[in-house]
Design a protein that fits this description.
396 residues, alpha/beta, Heat Shock Protein 90, 5-stranded parallel sheet, 5-stranded mixed sheet, 55% helix, EC 2.7.13.3
């Protein structure tokens, strides 16, 4: 069963250079409830379409000036939602095919039957209603598909962010477990090693008092030096695993950085290293043990200087946002190999010929003590950047 299209609020424009056709067709359509506009030529018709947006145009094929076929093409190009039925006095099949190809939805031969005209108009308006509805549905479908695609992208980003956050937490938990295990180990090692070391030191010093041979004294000094080195390693091991005695004071991070840089002045000058201080905004003082915090910068500066050839650049960036202090230490060394990045904070991990591999473990332990975070922000052939984040209200 066909659904009838209500003529209410349906606008029809008639374009014809014959006044009789305009008047007659207007009467027929108005009597059936349509709102009717009329134009004697195509140019006037275009103005009415532009202003009134009729659903349908009845367009004469033979007109002076702009002919019906040209007008049809213009209407279909400019106003795709306005449908066109052609009036023609020529009933050849070639003309019909040409009109339909140009975008007409039907054509009516003159003279026409009133009922046939009404039926043709209702049929085309029904087609228009369905096609306009389909276009709206397709547009809504495209909008919904676009939203779904956007949601999918956002979901993928969130999943990636959550995955990375989870991996980071897992890595931090693993590191915390390593430090905890190191703490248990180091406490036992310190007790078991330091007692014999003290005895060795005492007996060697006693032996030295009874030796006059310079060569033998030299050997004894080397023994004592190695004992000191073992004791230093044990102390560093303890520092990496648990907090030594500390004293909280008001500490200005910028001043602490400058003091530590000054301690490295001989190495910096010797290697012609350019130091760049990018202190963007100075954070207020925090409660901390200055000796502990100094260890962070000693280890990072020492690593950077070691990695850089002469004429390198050491950059320290400092800023805060009222909640956190952010410090970046960058160098122009050769970078950390990707395969080593996951292990750099592990106790005893080192790629140097000399060194205990405990420096960054100590740094990590201190940063964690103050409720902060540390990580490698960038590392490639142009250098390495470490980023330290410390809360202004340090959890010391």
């Amino acid at each position: 069963m066909k659904t009838k299209v209500s003529p209410k609020n349906q606008n029809i424009l008639i374009i014809d250079d014959e006044k009789v056709i305009l008047d007659l067709t207007s009467i027929i359509l108005r009597n059936r409830g349509y709102t009717v506009f009329t134009a004697g030529d195509a140019a006037d018709g275009f103005d009415i379409i532009e202003n009134s947006h009729p659903e349908l145009v009845l367009l004469d094929y033979m007109m002076p000036g702009i002919d019906g076929l040209t007008a049809l093409k213009i209407i279909r190009e400019r106003y795709p939602d306005t449908y066109v039925i052609m009036f023609t006095g020529k009933g050849s099949e070639e003309i019909a095919v040409e009109l339909m190809k140009a975008g007409a939805y039907d054509y009516i031969l003159k003279p026409f039957n009133n009922q046939d005209l009404a039926d043709r108009i209702e049929h085309v308006l029904r087609i228009r209603e369905v096609e306009i509805s389909n276009k709206a549905l397709m547009k809504e479908r495209e909008r919904l598909l676009g939203e779904i695609e956007l949601w999918n992208r956002q979901l993928e980003i969130r999943v990636q962010e959550k995955t990375e956050a989870l991996q980071k937490v897992q890595a931090e938990n693993v590191q915390a477990e390593k430090l905890a295990s190191l703490g248990y180990l180091s406490a036992g090692v310190a007790h078991e090693i330091r007692n014999p070391l003290n005895s060795i030191t005492l007996f060697v010093q006693l032996i030295k008092t009874g030796v006059d041979d310079p060569e033998l004294c030299g050997y004894i000094d080397k023994i004592l030096k190695e004992v000191d080195r073992i004791d230093t390693i044990v102390r560093k091991l303890l520092d990496a695993s648990k907090r030594p005695r500390f004293e909280l004071k008001e500490v200005m991070i910028d001043q602490l950085i400058d003091q530590t840089l000054e301690a490295f002045r001989p190495q910096i000058d010797q290697n012609r290293i350019v130091v760049e201080r990018d202190f963007r905004n100075i954070p207020p003082a925090i409660q901390a043990d200055p000796t502990e915090l100094e260890q962070i910068f000693i280890n990072l500066f020492l690593n950077s200087i070691h990695e850089m050839p002469k004429d390198g650049r050491l950059k320290i960036q400092l800023e805060h946002d009222g909640k956190e202090i952010v410090i970046r230490v960058s160098d122009t060394g050769g970078g950390i190999p990707k395969e080593n990045l996951a292990n750099i904070f592990d106790p005893f991990f080192t790629t140097k010929n000399k060194g205990s591999g405990l420096g960054l473990s100590v740094v990590l332990r201190i940063v964690k003590t103050y409720g902060g975070k540390i990580g490698v922000e960038k590392s490639d052939k142009t250098g390495t950047t470490f980023c330290i984040v410390l809360p202004l209200q340090a959890a010391a």
